[in-house]
Amino acid sequence: MAKSKALYGLDLDADRLRTMYYYMVLSRELDKRIWILNRQGKSAFVISGQGQEGVQVASALALNPATDWLAPYYRDMAMVMAFGMTPREVMLGQLGRALDPSSGGRQMPSHFGHHEKHILTGSSPVATQVVHAVGLAWSMKLKHEAGVVLTSLGEGSTNQGEFHEALNFAAVHRVPVIVLVENNGYAISVPQHREMAIQDVAIRAQGYGIPGVVVRGSDPLEVYQVIYEARRRAIAGDGPTLVEAKTHRYTAHSSDDDDRSYRSREQLEEEKRDDAVVRFREWLEQEKLWDREAEDTLKKRVKQEVDDATDYAEAAELPDAGTVYDHVYGSSPA
Amino acid sequence: MSDNGLTPEIMLDMYYHMVLARAVDDRMWILNRQGRAPVVYTSNGHEAAQVGSAFALNRGEDWICPYYRDLALVLAYGMTPREIMLHLLGRAEDPNSGGRQMPAHWGHAKLHILTGGSVVATQDVHAAGLALASKVLKDGRVSVAYFGEGSTSQGEFHEALNFAAVHKLPVIFFNENNGYAISVPSRKQMAVQDVAARAAGYGMPGVIVDGNDPVKVYEVVKEAADRARRGEGPTLIEAKTYRFVPHSSDDDDRAYRSREEVAEAKKRDPIAMFEARLKEAGILTDEKVKEIQKEIKDIVNDATDYAEKAALPDPATLGDHVYGSL
Amino acid sequence: MIPKAGQTTMAVLSYLEAIRETLRQEMQRDSRIIIYGEDVGVRGGVFRVTEGLQKEFGEDRVIDSPLAEAAIVGTAIGAAVNGLRPVPEIQFADFIFPAINQIVQEAARIRYRSNGTFHVPLVIRAPFGGGVHGALYHSQSVEAFFAHVPGLKVVIPATPYDAKGLLASAIQDEDPVLYFEHKAAYRSLKGEVPDERYLIPIGQADVKRQGKDISIITYGLMVSYALKAAEELEKEGISAEVLDLRSMRPLDVEAILETAKKTGKVLIVHEDNLTGGIGGEVSALISEHALFYLDAPIMRLAGPDVPAMPYSAPLEHAFMVTPEKIRDKARELAKF
Question: Which three-class secondary structure string do you get for B42-67?
Fold first, then answer.
C-alpha cells in the first residue's frame, strides 16, 4: 500500500479515506445480495464486480462528479455508486423496475447510465463506450469546459477495433479522457495470453503517443494517485492517459457462466489473497484510521442499506407493458 | 553491395519493374486526361517499396493483399501490363474483376493476389486469415497485407495485428507511409512519429525502412518472411516513402501540400536513385537504360492497344458470380 | 437422400445438441473445417454449443479468438480463400454489427467483384432471438439485415432435424452462409435426429403442418409456436397450414405461392421487427404472383417497431410473439 505521505496534495483526508472503504464494502455486499436474489429466482441475471472494487472506487473518487463524466462498463457497480448512484437505483435496475434510472427496465442489469449523475448509458457489445467517451470529452474541450471523462473496460475489450480508433483519435486531438482498463485476466473464459501477445495492456499507449500506466488494483491509493494525475494532465490540455489496473474477478463472468471449467480453484484462492477490500481495511487499521468498532458500525450500516435497497426495489412497480413503444423517438417538430 | 543474395540480374529485374510501373502509371494518367479512363490511382513514388517487397517473397505462392496504391507491386508479382490496362478500362477480360470494380482494386487468383475492396484496412484481417490457414495447413506460405499509414487508424488494423500476434501467424504487415491519407497529413492522423511504434502494443517487431531503397526493403521483407516461415510470427514493417502525384485523378494535391515540398521529395525519386546506384556499380549503362525504355514503351503501347480493342462486358453478365450455385 | 424415421438409427437430441453433433460429424469428415470465436474453445461457447470440440480436434481447429468481431469474420474470409472451411461463431447475433462491413462488403461481394475468380466458403453461426431476458443486446433478430444482401445465404433451422441438415449444407456450400440459431430453442426443442449425415438444401421451405383454411408462414422458434397455435385453432375448427421458410435467402418462392394458393389466407409471423422484415418480402411475392387466389388481405404478426427487446418481464412479453398472439391473429384472419 502506498505510504500515507504520498497522499499530501491529493485531497484525501481521513474522512475521504473512510468513504473510500465504505463504498468498497457497500458494493461488495450489494453484489453478494444480488447473487442471492438470482439464486432465489428473483433476478434473471447477474454480472459482478467483486474483486474490482478497489480500482473502481478509487477512480471514481479521484474525479469530480460535478464536472466530470463516467462511461463505465458492466462490472462497474462500485464505480457508479462512488460517483453518486444509490443502492436503491442499482437495485431498481437489477430487478428491471419502471423507476430504474439506467433504462426503465429495458436493459440487462449492470448496464449503468444516469444522465443527471453524469454517467453515460452503455450497451453490451464491448468497447463501444470508449469511442463515446472520447467524443464526449472532445466536446468538453471544444466547449472549453474544465472536465474529464473516465471510461473503463476489460482487457479483452482492448482487442476491439473501437478501442484502437478511440485512443488514436483521443491522442491526435489531445482529448481530456482517461481510459481505464480493469485487467482481471479473463475475457469471460479466455485468459489474457490467448487474447494478446503482450503482458501489459498499457504498452499499447506507445502506439498512440500517450502515457500508459500500470497500477496495482488492490492498492486503491495508488489507483487514486494515478487517476488524479491523469485528470490533472487532461484538464491541463495534455491529452489522454491509458491506465491499466491489474485486478481480479472473484466470481464467474455472470450468473450464466461457470468459471470452474477454465480457472482452477487454487488460482482463485491465490487471487483472493490480493483482495482490495481486505488490504485497504488492514492499511486503515495500521494508520489508526479504523478499528473493530468502526468496522462493526459500517457493516451494520451497509446491511441496512442493502436491505433497504432490496426491499425498495422489490416493492417497486414493474414497467407497464403499454410503455414498450415509448422512447423510440423523441417528437419531431411539426 | 551487402550479402543479401541479390545478383546483378535480379537487381536489373527490380529496376526494370520499377520503370515499367512508372511508365504504365504515366500512361494511365494520359488516358484519364484524354477521357478514356474514368479514374486513376497511382503508385508513382512508391515503386521501390513495392517492387523491393515483391522480390523478397515467393511470388505466385505467397499471398499478397494489396491496396489501391500497389500498381508496381502487382506488376512485380506477375500481373501483365495488358491485364492492368484491361482492368483500368473495365474490359470483360480484366482478370481482377471482369470490369466490376474501380481501377486499382487488384485481385488475381492464379497469382495469389487477393481481391480487395475500397474500405481501407479490410485486407489486414484477410491477410491474417490467409496466414491462419497456412499455419493450420502447414503449406509454408507467408501472407502480406499492404496498406497506407492512414488506414492504421482503422479498428481492423488493430484487430488483425493482435490476432496475428496471439496466434504467431506467418504474416507481414507492410505499411507504405507516404505521409498523407489523401489530404490529411500523418500528424493529424496519429500522435506518433512512426507507424512501427504500434508494433509494441501487439508484441511483434516493428521495423522502419527507407521505402525509396528497393534493396533495403527487400532485405527487411526477406527477414520478416523467413521469421514468419520459422513460425516466429508476424512483423510490422513501415516503409517511409512519398507519393509524387495526387491521390487519384479526382484529387488536386495543391490544396494540401506545397510545390516546394513535392519538389524536395522528388530529389529522392526511388527510380532515379536506384538507376544511379546501379550505374555506379557497373550493372547499368546509359545504353541499357535506353534499351529498357524502348522495350517498355512498346509494351505499354501494346497493353493500351490491346485493352482498348478488348470487348466490354456483356450486360447480360450483370447477374453472374453472385453465387457459385443455388 | 434425406433419411426418414425408421430407415436409420436415430437419437433424440436437443436443438443445441443437434448443432454440436453436426459440427463434430462435419469436422471428422473434413479436416479443413475450423471453428473459432469468443470462448468457443476451453469454455465450449457461452451456450456450450462447441463443448468438447477443442478437446477432440485440438487447439488448431477450435480456436479461442480475441474479442474482435471484424477480425473474426475478416480472418475467416482469408482462411477460406486459402483452403480452409471456417465456421466462425459470433457469440450473440447482436455482436455481429462490428463485423458487418466484412460480411456485407467483403464476404458477400468477393465472388462478384473478382468476376468469379475468388469465393469464400464460410459459415457464420450466431445465436439470435429473445424471450430469455437478454434485453437489447442479447435478443435481437438480425436476419433481415443480411437477407437483403445478394451474395449471402441466410438460414434459420426450426427443429433439431433441420438444424443438422441445414448446417451440413451450409458447411458444404461454396458461398458465405449465415446460420442463425434461436437461443430459446437450444434446450427447449427436442426431436429425433438421424445419426448419419444428410443435407437439407438451402432455399427449400418445409410444410411442417398441413391445413386448408389458413397458412401461417414463419421460421425459427416461431415455427413451434405456430404449431402450438395451430393445435388450439384445430379445436375451434380452423385448419391451419404451417410453412417453415428455413431459408431467408434464397426464399422458396414456389412453396410460398403454393400454400398461399391452397388456403387463400396468409399470416406471416416473425419475431424480428415488423417494418422491413422478411414478412414484407413474402407478402410482396404473394401479391405479385397469387393475388387472385387470396380471400383476405395478407396479415403480418411481428415484433413491434422498437429498436430491440427490453429486459423487464412485462416489456419483454409485450415485444415477444407468443403462441397465444399467433392464435388470436390467425383466428382474426380465418374469420375475415
Answer: CCCCCHHHHHHHHHCCCCCCCEEECC
Element (H, E) at A215: strand A212-216
- Chain segment B136-175, per-residue pLDDT in tens: 999 999 999 999 999 999 999 999 999 999 999 999 999 9
Give the cell for residue B94. Answer: 480484366
- Which domains can be identified in chain B, with CATH numbers? 8-319 (3.40.50.970)
Domain boundaries, chain A: 4-316
User: Nearest by CB to C98, which of A161, A190, A324?
Assistant: A161
**CA dist., res. A183 & res. A202, Å (int):** 10
Residue A11: the pLDDT is 72
Cα gap A296→B174, rounded to integer Å = 62
Q: Are C241 and C215 in contact (CB under 8 A)?
A: yes
β-pair type (C214-218, C240-244):
parallel
Among 1.10.10.10, 3.40.640.10, 3.65.10.10, 3.40.50.970, name the CATH number for the domain at A4-316: 3.40.50.970
Chain B hits for C118, CB-CB cut-off 8 Å, are 107, 109, 114-115
Reading the block at residue A134, the C-alpha cell is 472520447
Whole-angstrom Cα distance, residue A238 to residue A232?
9
Q: Give CA–CA dist B68/C136, Å, rounded.
A: 39
Domains in chain C (CATH in brackets) are: 10-194 (3.40.50.970), 206-334 (3.40.50.920)
The answer to whether A256 faces chain C, any CB pair under 8 Å, is yes
Burial B2-28 (b: 16+ CB within 10 A, else e): eeeebeeeebeebbbbbbbbbbbbebb
CA atoms within 13 A on the CB side of A22: 20
Q: What ipTM goes with this model?
A: 0.90
Q: With contacts defined as CB-CB under 8 Å, which chain C residues touch B318?
A: none
